Each structure stands twice: as C-alpha cells, then as structure tokens.
Amino acid sequence: MTAREHEDRRPAQWFDRSWDGRVSRTGASDSEAEERDKIADAARDGRWTELFGLLEPHGTLVNRTRLGGTRGFAPLHQVAWHGAPVDTARRLITLGAWRTLRTAAGKTPLDIARDRGHTHLLDILRPVVRHPLPEDVLRGLEEHLTMLIRGGRYADFVLRQQLRLPQLAPITELAVPKLWFPVPGQYGGIEIELQGTELMVTNFSRAGGWSLRYRVTSSSVHFVEERIDAPGVPPIVRSPEPGR
Q1: Which of 142, 162, 195, 238 could lock onto 226 through a cystine, CB 3.0 to 4.6 A?
Q2: Is the pLDDT of residue 5 over 80?
C-alpha cells in the first residue's frame, strides 16, 4: 500500500490535517517506505525541484519524516538546515508544512534556521498561530493527551507499532483546529479537536463499531461517552453516571 492509499483510508475531511504517527519501517509496505525515502532524500540533499515533484501531487505528505530515522526531520526542517530560498519555504508552507512541528531534539524549523545563522528565513518560518494557548496550557494538554492514548483502547496498537504520539502545537496553526491520528490497520484512529483551552478527543473504530469520547484539560482527563454501533442494533450510548 502506498502512503497515498494509506491516507485514503481516513475520513475525507481530514486530508489536510493528519498527524503521521508511523516512524518505524516495521509494518510499512515497500512502496510506502520507498516513497517516503525519496521525499526524505530529496529534502536532505536540497534537491528542491525533485522534492516538489514528489510532494505536489499529494501535499499531505509534506510533514512526513523518514521511516526508521532518528532525527525526525520533515522537509521544512531541511529547508531551515540548508538555508534554502524563502520561496522554497513559502511553497512548502502553502502545501501545509507545519512551522511548529518539532524534531526528535525538540527543534522547530525556526529554531534550526536561527541556530544555523540563516536569518533570511526567520520571518517566513515564524509560526502563524491562529489559536494561541499559554505555553503551560499547551504543555499540560499534550501531557494528558499522551496519558489518555497510552492508557486507552488503542494503547497496545500504539506500542506495538511504535507510533509517534501527536504534538499539539500544529493544531494551533490550523484554520480548523482539528487533527486526525490514524492507527494503521484498525480502520479508525483518534480525532483531536481544540475547543478553547480544552480538547475533545474521540477514539473510534469503524471495524469494531465503537467510539469513546473524552474531554481533556491541561490538568485532567474526563470520560464523556461510549457509543456502540453494532449492525442491525440501535446505537447504544453510555455516559458517566450522574454525580460522577
């Protein structure tokens, strides 16, 4: 299965705001690994014309990293490293590259450009945050989202597939503050929506016919409801007992 075919398994409304959790080559098809290697190689080597030829047919790959890599560099990080022209950075951002995406070392493209002395890139790489949050709130939301995923119904799949859990800073860049985190092979995943200073998080599986909703704050996680949609049976919705 190609990376594009994998993308097509998610709901159509998520095409431009999906969090790519796959970092291991284990479980990836040869065609997907090859596709991502070509993108990573072109960006690493500063072959920008080739890079855009690979990305522009389906720009949803613009925030992907190399499978099996350790640095966590997406194409925009490589632009910052090389000190590429401003127009190259702008073109990637137009395709949907996130300026708040962090590498494995916690560096954004802006951090890398600043560290490398590429001052001509500082303005274009400075994040445009549409949904600002205090740093402590953002950090708390991310910590509790991580706790929820690691302790939830998809915990075994996330661990077994070595999935990288979502960073929340990119959601603050999006016009519609939602991220879709697919869990490969499960015909479902996790919807993450920023609502003010809280998250509404829905785990669901189309194959299993179930969904679980939670409200996540910077200091806690609250169960909202469970919905079971079995074929031929009216939906069953379970919510917390009153007073709990």
Answers
A1: 238
A2: no
